[in-house]
Design a protein that fits this description.
alpha/beta, TIM Barrel, about 15% strand
């Protein structure tokens, strides 16, 4: 079906022009980021969501270049960095919207990983607090044969030890919900019901869930209703197109405009970070996602 005329089609034309500008800039020896900047049509600052982007999805672009592009797009920061990256983002006037900590597979559901995980989480809390930022990520880890109830008990035990440190530092620990069907086989915190129950049992405003929309679409769907029902337990959001975890455009099954609006309507003070792997020009794809989620 042909695209109808109107504002949406006009914006698509602008992005096509942006891509051409990037290509022309590359031919002339200009930076792709600087070539793109002149054509970017809207800023995330115009919307109600505090948008950011995950660093690992843009490995072919230097952090400095990604920060420059993010700043121009109106993003507030970069997700999933560690202290060696902090000076780079700070010079661009950005923050780290989610600071890394311990390994994903070796997490809090298994006691033998508690000591190392808590040490790394404590270091991340200290570094994040020093910058005046807010979020540190954590993980349940893989089951490795552990029953989900026992695993929750183990997570509660570890979190009850570290959450008081986070509370004192003004930091929110965010356990990420991940799919165990496609990307992270055996991961325990793979559904909202289990994660929300964990949040209730820990019982602190300084422990919440990172609701990854891509992962939870794979595991359970019903994304908007879940956000409306359980948003108080969610401290952070990640995007990603399904299937494939690529651009959040009309090539995938999620309606991100509606999802972004539902999150904005909660009026929660959260960050909304793009975590898709671009298959086209990465900065053009990022800018398209940013514009789509301006609500």
């Amino acid at each position: 079906m042909p695209l109808s005329s109107g504002p949406e089609n006009t914006r698509r034309d602008l992005f096509r022009a942006a891509t051409a500008a990037v290509a022309a800039g590359a031919t002339l020896g200009a930076s792709p980021t600087s070539a793109f900047a002149a054509a970017a049509p809207r800023s995330a600052a115009e919307g109600r969501l505090k948008q950011s982007v995950c660093r690992w999805c843009y490995g072919k672009i230097s952090l400095d270049e990604l920060c420059s592009a993010a700043k121009r797009m109106g993003l507030v920061g970069i997700d999933l960095l560690t202290p060696p990256d902090f000076e780079t983002i700070k010079k661009h006037g950005l923050i780290c919207t989610m600071v890394g900590s311990h390994p994903l597979t070796d997490g809090l559901c298994e006691p033998k990983f508690h000591k190392k995980s808590l040490e790394m989480m404590n270091a991340a809390i200290e570094a994040t607090s020093k910058e005046g930022w807010r979020n540190v990520i954590c993980f349940s880890g893989n089951r490795r044969g552990i029953d989900d109830k026992v695993g929750m008990d183990n997570c509660v035990q570890a979190l009850k030890e570290i959450v008081p440190v986070a509370e004192k530092a003004g930091i929110v620990l965010n356990m990420e919900l991940l799919n165990s069907k496609v990307d992270h086989a055996d991961y325990m915190c793979d559904n909202t019901k289990w994660g929300v129950e964990l949040v209730k049992r820990v019982g602190s405003d300084n422990f919440k869930l990172l609701y990854d929309i891509y992962h939870m679409q794979i595991m359970e769907g019903d994304v908007i209703r879940t956000i409306e029902k359980d948003h108080a337990a969610f401290g952070h959001y990640h995007t990603g197109g399904n299937p494939g975890r690529h651009e959040i455009d009309d090539s995938q099954e999620l309606n991100y405009k509606a999802i972004a609006r539902a999150i904005a309507d909660t009026k929660d003070e959260v960050f909304f970070a793009h975590e898709f792997i671009p298959v086209r020009d990465p900065l053009t794809s990022l800018a398209e996602a940013v514009e789509l989620c301006i609500v």
